[in-house]
Structures are given as C-alpha cells and as structure tokens.
Amino acid sequence: MFQSKNTTHRGLNIIIVGYGKVGSALIEQLSQEGHDITLIDTNSEKIQAATNLYDIMGITGNGASYSVQMEAGVEGADLLIAVTASDELNLLCCTIARRVADCAAIARVRTPDYSNEVGYLRDKLGLAMIINPELEAAKEASRILAMPTALEVNPFAHGQAEMINYKVPEGSILDGLAIMDLSRRVKCNILICAVEREKEVHIPSGTFTIQAGDVISFVASRKTARKFMQEIGVNTHKVKDTLIIGGGKASYYLANQLLLMGVNVKIIEINRKRCEELSILLPKAIIINGDGTDEELLSEEGIENVESFVPLTGIDEENIMLTLHAKQVSKAKIITKINRINFKNVIDQLDLGSLIYPRYITSEAIIAYVRAKKDSMDSNIETLYHLFDHRAEAIEFRVDEKSDVTNISLAELPLKKNLLIAFINRNGTIIIPSGNDCIKVGDTVMVVTTHTGFHDIRDILR
Amino acid sequence: MNRPIIRYILGQVLKIEGVLMLLPCLVALIYREKNGYYFLMTAFLCMALGFFMTIRKPKNNVFYLKEGCVTTTLSWAFLSFFGAIPFWACGEIPSLTDALFETVSGFTTTGASILNNVETLSHCSLFWRSFTHWIGGMGVLVFLLAVIPMTGGSHMNLMRAESPGPSVGKLVPKIKSTARILYLIYFGLTVIECILLLFGGMPLFDSLTTSFGTAGTGGFGIKNSSIGDYSPYIQWVVTIFMILFGVNFNAYYLILFRQFKKALCMEEVRYYLLVILTTIIIVCIDIRNCYDSMAEVIRHAAFQVGSIITTTGFSTTDFGIWPQTSKTILVMLMFIGACAGSTGGGIKVSRFVVLFKTVMKELDSYIHPKSIKKIKMDGKAVEHEVVRSINVYFITFVTVFTLSLLIISFNGHDLETNFTAVAATINNIGPGLSLVGPTQNFQFFSNLSKYVLIIDMLAGRLELFPLLIFFHPAVWQDLFKNKSGKKHSS
Question: What architecture is the A241-356 domain classified under in CATH?
C-alpha cells in the first residue's frame, strides 16, 4: 500500500526474470531511470556479473517458483518482466506473479506457435503486455523495406504518422538548406525534429542548415512522408525482392510480412529440417537449403541483382560480414540485425546502413510502459523510441486531463531547450504544429528531445 | 586504476570527517574547554582538503573491486591520520604514534588504549574517542553511500570492501537504500540504548559515550574502571546491547518488516546466541567462588562474555584474575567474534559455521569417498567460491597473526601478553590478558610494535584482504608508476 505512494519519487519495484540480451538491456535502462530492480536467474555466475555491473539485487533460482518470487519480494513489486529463453517459463512466471501478488506482468513470447494467440493469452492470463522482439524486429525491417531509402521508419499514432530517418546524400536539394526555407522549396507538411551530425544530436531551430552527410529525422503523416521523399527526388518504391539469410524466428516473421506486402522472398537456411518446416509455413517463399555464408551460393542465388538483402543469422559477426560483402557486390538495400551491443563503436564506424537491434526494440516498448505506469495520473505514454543511440527520445503522450500545457498556444508555452513538439494527433488528424497551435485534452502529442526520463507531458515545461 | 574516482571519494570522506569533527567542538563549547579549538581547526583542515579534492568530478564513474579495496584502505588511513591530529596537537597524547594508535583503535572499534589515565582527558577528546567507535562501527564508506548521490552499480565494491562478513548482500535492490536502512537501524538502536542508560541515572555525557562504544562494539570507556563503577542495571543494559549489536543487521531488517520467522531462522544468529549462552554458563560455574553473590557472578560472566564475543572490550571486573578455564574461554571467544553484517569484529560466527561444516563434510568423505554433499547455510547451498574464500581467509588470518606475534615478541614480554595483545587488536577487541589486561594498557610497547598492532587493527576491521591487496605490487604500480606518463600526456 505504501509502496504505491512512494513510486512517484522512488521509482518502481521491478522484478526481472532472466539475464540474457533483453534482460541486460532492460536492467541497464531501468536502473538508470532510478527503479528498484531485483533480478532472478538460475545461473549464479550471471547474477554475480549483473550485480557487479548494476545497482540491483540478484537472486539465484527459478523465477517461476513461488518461494523464489516471494524472496524477490513479489508482494511489494509493481511489475514483473519475464524474459528467459523459454516462452512457457515466461508465461508461467507471469501467471504466478499475477496470482500471488497481483502485480503487473510482462512476458516475452516469441515462438510463432503462439504469435497468433498473443491477444488471447494476454487477456486470459491478465498480463500487461506480451512482447515479441523477433516479430517487432521483422516489422521494423519490413517498414524499412517498404521505403528502402530510409534508414529507419518508426510508426506513431497507431501507424498514422511516421518518423523517418534519412541520410542526406551529396547533391541532394536538402544540402545547404536552412530549415525555415524548407517549406518554400518543398510543398509538404513535414517537420525535421532531430539531426545527427558528426555524432552530435541537434534539435534544430529554423536557422539550422542541413548539410550532406547529416542524418535527418522527420515526422509526417504516412502519405506526406512518401510525397516528401518524392519531392526531394528519392525513389520511394518498396523493394521487389528480398534475400534473407538464416531461417530463424525473425526470418519467418519478416518473410510473412513481406509476402503480405507482395515482395518476393528467398530464404537461405543451412538446416534441412528447418527448411522443410519453413516451406510448410511459407508456401510462397523460395527456401534454399545451404550455407548462407558461402560466397558461391550467394552469387548463384543472385545477390548481385537482388533489391534487398537481410542477413538474420544468430551470429552478429556473420551478419556484419554478410552486410559488408553484399555492399561490395551489389546495390541492394541492406538491413543488419545486431543481437548484442558489444563493440558498438566499431559497428557504427563500419557504416552498415540500416541496423536493427531487437533487444532495444523490446526494451523501448517496456520502458514506455514503465514510464507511463510510474505516473499515469493525467497523461500516458503511448510510444517511445530512442533515437541516435539513446541520445534523443521521441515520446508520444496521450493528454487525458487539463493541465498547465493544455489550451495555451505553443509559442507561449515555456518549453525546455532541446525539445520539439513534432506533431499533435487530434481525432486521427496529424497536425504538424506551428506556434499558434495548442494542445487540447484528448490529443496525443509527440515530443522529441535530448532530455531523458520524461514520463509526463508536463515534463516538457521548464 | 581509476585514480580520479579514488581521489574524489577520499575527498568526500574527508569532508564527512570534517563535519563529524564539529561535534566534539560542540562538546568543548558546552564544557568551555580550550581543546575544542584544535578540533575546530582540524575540522576545517579536513573540509578544506576534502573540498579541493572533490572540486573536479571524475568523468569515469566505473570502479572495480581493486579500486574499492584501495579506496577503502586509503580512506581508513586518512580518517585515522586526521582523526589523530587533535589528540596530538592539544598535547593530551604527546607522541604522534600513540595518537595514531588511539585513533585507529577508535575507528576500527578495537578500544585498545595507550592512555594510563583516561580520566584526565578533556570532555571533547573523550567524546571524539568514543565517537570514532560509532563512525567506524558501521563504516564511513557505508555512510558515504547513504548520503552522497552516486550513479552506477559498481559502488557495491566499496561496500563489499568495508562491510564485515564472507559475502555481503543487499537488503533492498538499491545500494543507497541498503546503506540508509543499515544506518537507520544503527542509529535507532544507539538512541534506544542511550535512553535506557539515562533511565539508569547515568549522566548524559557518560551514556552518550558508552552508547557509542557499545554500538560500534568499540570499548573505549571514559573511566579507568571502564563500566565497573556503574550500577548493575547499567551493566545489564550494556551487556544486552553489546550482544544486540553483534547480531547480523539483516535480522533487524527482517524484524522491522515483520518477518520474525525468517529472522529467527538465521542459522548464524542462532549459533551466535548458543555460543554466548553456553560460555556464560561455563564461566559462571568456573568463577562461582570469585564473587560474593550468585547475581554478581552471573552479571560479570555475562558482561565479560558479551563484551569479548562481540569484540567490544568493555569490562566490569578484571578478568585477568579469573581462573585459567575462564580466561582460556575468553581468548577463544576473541577469535570467534560476532556475526557477519554486524558492527563486531573477529573471524565471525558464520565463517566458523562454514569451516565446521567443511570439516564434517571432509570426515563424511572418508566414510563415503564418492559421496557428494553441498555445504548449506540457512537452507541454501553455499557456493564453492564462498567456501574457498573462507578457507583462504582463515589461513591468511593465521599467517598475519603469527607474523605479528613474531615481531611483537622482540619487545621481550611474556607470551601471554604478546599473544593476547595481537589477538585483541586483530580481532578488534581491546583488552587482552596479563600486561594488556582490562586494567592495563598498550603504552609500554615499542613504536615498531605499536605500528604492527595498528596494521593488525586495520586488517582485522577491513577483513584482511582490502588491506593486503594494497600491498600487492601490481596495485602500487597502478597507483603510482604510470603517473608520470599520464602527466606528459595531459
């Protein structure tokens, strides 16, 4: 009882079960945001490593066991997140936590067998959220392949608005253009909300001049985004075919998405049995049984002429090597999946193009939920994305109640520096705001900022 | 080695010491004593030094176990040195070595004194002497963790280096909250004891200093007779609180959160209380003829046993004149010490429990050579690493002990004196037997011996390894050698 009173300033009590890739990404983020974290893992060495690295408490044991959960203080916990390797164990952990302590629970479930039943499972088991990193990664990849010139495409407002990262090439009409002149040159209602230049993230003002080599991040409604890309002379057609290396869960989800979009999919997988499974699951895809890292095989399967190439093996090094190879031999759009984040600096220097980090996709969703839970009085976080390596955040708030920010024109609001209101979604219409617009109750508002840790719309005020 | 963070933390420690040193100034103000100026000046010196050392915040906040150990050792060295300055400057302890000995003895909660007559000291010096016990009991770095905002999880390494016990756990996920809870319990118990002592008609100053001495399991008295001249009620209160402060603080945390069952099930606490009870009974039987009434026998036995096993070192009577069996038992108790996670010293009950279980396991393996058995504690398997480190700890302890004993023996005193002097300092107790008995002091040792004993006290308080690692050549190289190289680059 008194725990909930403390949550506003002391952070939530969160139990995380499983210290793997996603678990560690979550701990890193959540402990930075000041939550009390208890980690449960069966491997005591992993617990030792985690407690040395982060300010958390570790408990060795089976997270699905009642007594271990009690020891971890599930009774006073606000949230349990189960991210062990096994879907069934995750669901069991959450179910027990729900029954024993009635605390909110999030489970990772990634097997395709359950992916269609996620909604049903969540409702029946009373879970707060079921996350599927592989599916989310596949969705992100398919969004990029639908607009292959973009580095990254993130949907907001239930897909009505998009935030697109685009690298300005040499000779683009954007090169040397000040932001305030943009609307004169290009007749599109878009807003450039962040620019990365030489590892620095800028929230640009009107006088900011774009240069070639910048990565700009702009927001627009779905249609205008495409129109804008055409206006600046970029091809926006989705890719015609894709070559996927590796036949894991992410590959299955991606292939499924792409086939729905009408893209031809070819998957190279080394395990014959898995190939057979895939051919049953994906009758329209071409399944090749072979080693995806074999240069000969790649040539044979036409890597030179393919329009997009997605290495999705379980090994990061292989993915990176394949990307580098593909960059040399073809002009294909390449998306690289990075599972771990070791040697991030090295990876960034390689200029691999579009990168997908499944663990970040997952932790972003959970952190959005946690922040919303921390202070869900009069506003709610709908979506949250980390931009440019966690140096900026894009957060979509739902404004449920009257507060200091509502009904005042944006020009008069005392906003923090390095912050931008990217769009206002009012009853399904995306408004790219000018100084005269104001936030009203019932809107969802997207904020881009280099500050971190916002959990309430009022945080945008000075 | 991350030198900036070590410097930064040392600076913070000095600042805290400076602030804490204002308390004896306050005492001096109340009693109108001129010696207060020395404390005031030292306090400002500490604060100024600390201020300069913390002006620049280190960029890299990460530190590892070795940094934790080095920081801890250096912090304690700094603390002791600056804490000794007022004693020496005001002339109450003319020799710097002696002043250092007295302060180290205070901070490490040993309570071994070099003073022939403590009653001549000014009130502010007496207060500071006892207050060092209170600071050292829970640890100054733990205090630092509780008050200074620090980010990152690597600060666990500080706590690990300073807190007694084979494996240091957290009570709650955040180290800051853990440190705060510990200090809250510590503070609360001290206040309760102080109030109970006041009820017994003890003057406020006496009850404050006695409470500090008990809470830190230190043992500096403000009377030559220690607690001997106070009423039986006061002696009983002190006895009970000494034993309470020797209990693992986790138990109090569990009790605070109404988990009595779990608290009672803590194996270490049960063994600890069992040992106390048995030894009291044996000592009672042994000394039944030394005193007039049975009540007195029980009181003295309980007090001395409690005082020695918790490594406090108060005394109500000269146990040097007790029969041999009782003396031997007291010496044995010196080595056992209090529970891990308490303010007491010694080898710790939990280590002995594990050691004993290891021996039993070894015996079993002679009967069933292929049997596999994990050592358990509180119903949980003890990791092999922990068992190994406890074994190594024990061996290291014996080695350090023997070496110290050898060096001390050059002074030419009898073995009983030397043996108990080392035992009383390395286990942070205070009084030993014979020449260093409860009515005697450590004044007569040569300076070399005193420094050896100072090191023993620090080693005992920091549980050997943080201090020993400081003498490892690699650490020295890291700390000092490439300093010049760095200067060139910057």
Answer: 3-Layer(aba) Sandwich (3.40)
